[in-house]
Amino acid sequence: MGKRWLASIALCVVLAGCAQSVVREHHSALALDDARQTWLGGQAQQALAEQTDPDGFGLLANGQEAFGVRAGLIKQAQRELDIQTYLLGEGQTTNLVFSRLLTAAEEGVRVRLLVDDMGAVGQGERLAALASHPGIYVRVYNPVSVGRGHLVTRVLASVANPAQQHRRMHNKLWIADNSVAIVGGRNLGDEYFDANDSRNFADLDLVAIGEVVPTLSQSFDLYWNHGLAQPIERYHQVSANAWQALQAELNAWLDDNADSAYFSELRQQSYNTPPWEELHWGEGLALWDAPGKLTQSGAPDWKDTLLGDLTANTHLKERLILISAYFVPTERGVARLTALADQGVEVEIITNSLESTDAAVVHGAYAPWRKTLLEHGVTLYELRPEQEANGSTDDNEMRVPGASASALHIKAISFDDQLFVGSFNVDPRSVLWNTEVGVLVSSDTLMEAFDTLVDVGRDPAISYRVVLDDNNILNWELEHRGEPQVLTEEPGSTWQHFNAWLSHTLRLERWL
């Protein structure tokens, strides 16, 4: 009797699991011919018809503008919205996105949202409610079935398979009607769009139209249809029409916050025009890691990664500029960078200072290499956390935003006259463990726009310039209230210094 009772319970669990595991129909991206029938597709084709280059690009450096473009794409899309993100934060920007996704779905737009499972911790119920709408599909990448309510329990649940679970889908990609795409460093969360009162990230997106967009759609489909992408309904059960309660909750929240400064400024942006004004014309190459990279038993050969593809498709003779929020060059990378500098290539790096970084352990793996890099002529800049005004009030200017605390989150690399913008950091995690996506662009005017951004990053009111003094000791040059200053000790709290020291002492470099 006891065994039959246990068997009955087991059968119920299996049947319940099957009920939760119903996979809704897979969808491929719109073909470009179909996309032309949409408003966005028509606008893109009209702009492209006047050019000889296959693609058009724009840089989104201002956080609020970057969010406004995303919100506009949700409103402008007529057929399909595909969104891929590593992190899904809570806050006013996410609330507005969820509300508009529900509105778009009600108007017949098919929505696919793909989130890394670690980045969706604590939001399972809300995501499942979103997915209860018949036009919205939500999947989590590389999931576990337990410990989903809190980051601590989610990490503990990963102990059963740490070799796979420390690897994450780090991709960031938005595609509307297979006609307009956004790639770059921004996740979905207030701090990525200048909407956080205490801390914001200086970040960068690339908006694209043209032949590169269907290729990016292909990358989304590969991830969406991979076995690691699982429907959120498998892990969180909600009522069939839970989306209605979620929509009511979001509408009430938005009504209560309609007069906030952020939303008031956002309403001034027009949604009756395409998400671009002046595009830079050229040719783009979409690059991404294979979705199955996370399932490999060991570290892949770097030639089989996005970095390998990037290296194979770039040329470098004169200038290399790396802007990376998390810069961990490793011994092999330092050897390559110093060799380039010794050969006469101008090598410049912009990253976070110890003060500004949100990951002091990463800084601890970068800091010991600074002296070697500087001795070979590499130029180093480190973003300051509290930035002083640079005299500009133009919200459309590409600039590093000032806030009570700022951290760099840009991921961009220029190789002579080619520019790569995406989710890829210059660190072992992006090379070996995570999956990434980005676009490599050849465009003279886009490079000029990027150089303008780099000039801002060099501003001593925004960044430290790290140099060696006459005694070969590190100094940090800056400007404070218009006056040049030199710091002889690295700024940062005791706790930050301790974490950086611990990271270096434990030799965590390979895993960062």
UniProtKB/TrEMBL annotation:
Record-annotated PLD phosphodiesterase domain positions: 165-192, 404-430
Organism in which the protein naturally occurs: Halomonas colorata
Name of protein: Phospholipase D family protein
Gene3D superfamilies, per the entry: Endonuclease Chain A
UniProt-listed SUPFAM superfamilies: Phospholipase D/nuclease
Family matches, as SMART domains: PLDc (SM00155)
PANTHER family in UniProt: CARDIOLIPIN SYNTHASE, CARDIOLIPIN SYNTHASE C
Pfam families: PLDc_2
Classification of source organism: Bacteria, Pseudomonadati, Pseudomonadota, Gammaproteobacteria, Oceanospirillales
InterPro entries on file: PLD-like_dom, PLipase_D/transphosphatidylase
